[in-house]
């Protein structure tokens, strides 16, 4: 599903990603962890080209995102993304947030988009909020709407950039529950997270980044109980 | 003091007609200024230097010279340069519209930059192309933030419209002057149109407040 080959990313003279290569299979749930500033978010943003890699290739579903000829805007339709700070459209109602892109980009009829949107709201437990504006929602509700908004485009892949980091502690669970449900449907997911519980419980694989390098990858249980590298050991010792 | 407001009574219909004459070109100018200003603002935030530089230069010219001079150049110099006998109405619309667009473009540019960068990213990530993203996601949010500044610009334009009296456009101001010269009396007609200008601005202010409240519904 995703193939990253020799990915480098620099901001000015600052190298934030160094020589990252990884393949991720369809239906896999992958957690990306590491200290802050390790390049986790930048790596994620290189997948849908919100950040343009300095060199290397990124392919999603057999399409080379980094190739100059690729219609990146079109390719992004199939890559959902959820942000730390939600970024819901504040001037649209919850339902309009879900239906805008499907109607505008995929050409769905309004009735069709509404029906689909309501189903998704039901799925994230917010069917009663369709007419509300984002400002009236709690953080956890906003993030669930954001997930539903991304799903409304029927993506093949979902990227989560620290989806629970901006939430009050009591709201983390409701968002993680939605993500767990999504993982069980077979969605391919890339999740940058500080929630080690989620990484351990739900992920099929953990990527550990440090100082822009992919230091260690592994199956979660093995990684958390018996990390192979010193840096991963240090990191886990600090947070667990 | 020999104030006599009753002497302007015969001239009231003549002066009141000026309201529509003034409003006519003010409305067209506001519209032209707003549309052109939006386009200029989009040029200014663009990465393409060929769009950005002319837009910046345009703004610099129209903000850097007096409006009354721009009006005079358009009305008086156009026939000399092109032979086209430009009407006072068209001159007024062009001068005020072009001038206003320079100010409006700065207001809108600031408004767009003030919209959270995350909104753009969310739209991009959903695969929304640039045009609908700007039209439906970014500009509506920018407009909400800049409405007070925009309203201010429209009010300024409405008042400054009195400058067209200098090119023989028979607007409210000009009608007050004509009445004055007939009556050999200045205070009464000038006071009368002062009140009319103030009322027009009040209507604009109330309208702005109403629009602002409507846009706040999503807060």
TrEMBL record, chain A:
GO MF annotation, one = ABC-type amino acid transporter activity
Q: Topology in the membrane?
A: Peripheral membrane protein
Q: Which GO terms describe its cellular component?
A: plasma membrane
Q: Which domain of life is it from?
A: Bacteria
Pfam families given in the database record: ABC_tran (PF00005)
InterPro entries according to UniProt = AAA+_ATPase, ABC_ATPase_HisP-typ, ABC_transporter-like_ATP-bd, ABC_transporter-like_CS, MetN_ABC_transporter-like, P-loop_NTPase
Q: Where in the cell is it found?
A: Cell membrane
Which residue ranges does the record assign to the ABC transporter domain? 2-236
Q: Which SUPFAM superfamilies match?
A: P-loop containing nucleoside triphosphate hydrolases (SSF52540)
Q: Which UniProt keywords apply?
A: Amino-acid transport, ATP-binding, Cell membrane, Membrane, Nucleotide-binding, Transport
Q: Fetch the PANTHER family from UniProt.
A: AMINO ACID IMPORT ATP-BINDING PROTEIN, GLUTAMATE_ASPARTATE IMPORT ATP-BINDING PROTEIN GLTL
User: Family, per the entry?
Assistant: Belongs to the ABC transporter superfamily.
Q: What is this protein called?
A: Polar amino acid transport system ATP-binding protein
What is the scientific name of the source organism? Amphibacillus marinus
Automatic annotation (TrEMBL), chain B:
List membrane-spanning regions. 20-43, 55-77, 190-211
Name the chain's protein.
Polar amino acid transport system permease protein
CC terms in the record's Gene Ontology section? ATP-binding cassette (ABC) transporter complex
Coiled-coil residues are none
* ABC transmembrane type-1 domain location: 19-208
Give the chief site where it resides.
Answer: membrane
Which GO terms label this protein's molecular function in UniProt?
Answer: transmembrane transporter activity
**Pfam families recorded:** BPD_transp_1 (PF00528)
Keywords from UniProt, A to Z, are:
Amino-acid transport, Cell membrane, Membrane, Transmembrane, Transmembrane helix, Transport
The record's similarity note reads: Belongs to the binding-protein-dependent transport system permease family. HisMQ subfamily.
Report the membrane topology from the UniProt record. Answer: Multi-pass membrane protein
Subcellular location field: Cell membrane
GO biological process terms on file: amino acid transport
Q: Which PROSITE patterns match?
A: ABC_TM1
